[in-house]
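Input record (one chain):
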Amino acid sequence: MDPLAPLIASLHAEGRLRVWSLVITVFGDCVQHRGGRISTARLQRLLGRIGVEPGALRTALSRLGRDGWVESERAGRSSEYRLSQQGLMRFTEATGRIYAPPQSGPIHGWTLSLDEGGPQGFTLGGLRLRPQNQALPDAGFRLEGQITALSPALRASLISAPFRAALDHLFADLAHLTTTDLDPLDACAARILLIHRWRRIVLRHPDLPAELLPDDLPEPPRSAVARTYARLSPQAEAWLDLAQPDMPAMPSPPASHRGAISRRFAQGA
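The corresponding structure, as predicted from the sequence alone:
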């Protein structure tokens, strides 16, 4: 049985696949620390492993070019793609959020605040709870202290139904990746599937501290993603090093990017 079949089926079951978004995930996870360029042949080999047809990839690359995300140039008989300056500007802030380290310990100080929106009044209709070190300095009202009680029902209500569904899909994917020994291409494809799902969670939903997550989750999701990512990465990087007749090896990370993979999700990165 195809070891990636459950993850691929889950991805394609979510509706029409946004191949352009998947391509951006590949750039962030496999390309930027490897010289910033990827050949069409390698991109097709990787995305083809998870069910993307060549025509769909060509359409996605054309759209990304029109929208100012990527640029292309000829490299022998093939083409290579890289993020444009505009694409890099959009990309950098999201990358920091995706690969931020897991929470290192319990949070003891909290802030309950009502944030002002300047002369137009309050931008939020209610209070916001944050770790104390994330409090906004211009809050119109701020109360600091500790959480002394938080019932399971209230904790569960802090995340929306779409957020909870996304987390359930994430943990289902992670369960399929815990015991499988993958070859280099499969490991790279699995890493892309994992980060693509995680990227959508991080960019659509708040990154809640462990203390505010539903208590029936197996573990904090960022910790689970970080551990699986570290396990997949050696084989995934081996595939990026692999050269084949129609597909040159990806460049080794330059000095400024060495250790980029090991720093992802790492404390103090």
